[in-house]
Amino acid sequence: MNANKLKGHAAVLTANVIFGLNIPVTKFLLSGWMSPLGYMLSRTAVATLCFWAASLFAEKEKVSVRDLLLIALGGFMGFIVSQYLTAVSLQYTTPVHFSLIVALSPVVVMLLAALFLREPISRQKVAGVALGIAGALLLVVRSMGTESGENDLAGMLLAVLSITGYGVYLIIMRNIAQKYTVITQMKWLFLFTALMMLPFGARDFGSQAVFSAASTGQAIAGLTFVIVFPTMLGYVLTPYGLKHLRATTVSIYMNLQPIVASVVAIFVGQDTFSWEKPIAAVLVITGAYVVTTSRAKDDPDTSLPHPGHKATSPRT
Q1: Which of 142, 153, 201, 259 sits 20 to 30 Å CA-CA off 100?
Q2: pTM
Q3: Which burial class, exposed, middle or buried, applies to 133 when counting CB atoms under 10 A from its CB (0-12, 13-18, 19+)?
Q4: Mean pLDDT across the chain, nearest whole number?
């Protein structure tokens, strides 16, 4: 394995540890300090200012109109759809249930790659999908009788839509990552997402409890963590990983999120330990591993460009 791939693995691993920590922090902020729209606009507005300020000192790159449209679509799917639905989902279900659904992400990316990139699906991949679905169904069935969130079923359905949005983001941004620096990608992505969020979140923004006199140090620290680490650092590290790794490889690291989030959530009292959680986790993570390690006979591993290749027409 060359140095660039090692750096890519390290970047994606770090990003997903951060995303895992973000799940219980987001749950805390949404428990009374922020609304989903206020939470989203806060993240996009600050990130936009920071990345455009950083771009003043970075390499200047001209981005084609087509690529700007793709970045806008990637921002919509990977941040607005994915992150907004994450915030809403966590209002209904627990961080453990949400993070276990997140572990289905490699399965979703595999299916999207088959649909949009025509990647073949082997029997081993189908078996992995079945294992992942079995784990998710175990959570759904158990939550119907002993709900630990406000509405676990609704929360987990929203989580499925959230990870689908993020899967589309990975497929779109994989080729964009080959052509531009991370700062260029992120300054445009967050500008577009902030503009899209502004009409919906502006009214909520001023009424966030976290910005009022009643705010606490914990609430401010939580929001600061969300903006600095998952929003800015996490979204820098992920495209860096996409520059050197396949989208399906990047997605397998999302299985770190349920492990990190579950440990933290149980430790801080946001969730409780029960027998079905580790069983569901084993099923989901095993299914994801089977999916991403499977190789069909006719899969040439060339559906996405080589990290060193300068793509000329992003394939979505």
Answers
A1: 201
A2: 0.78
A3: middle
A4: 82
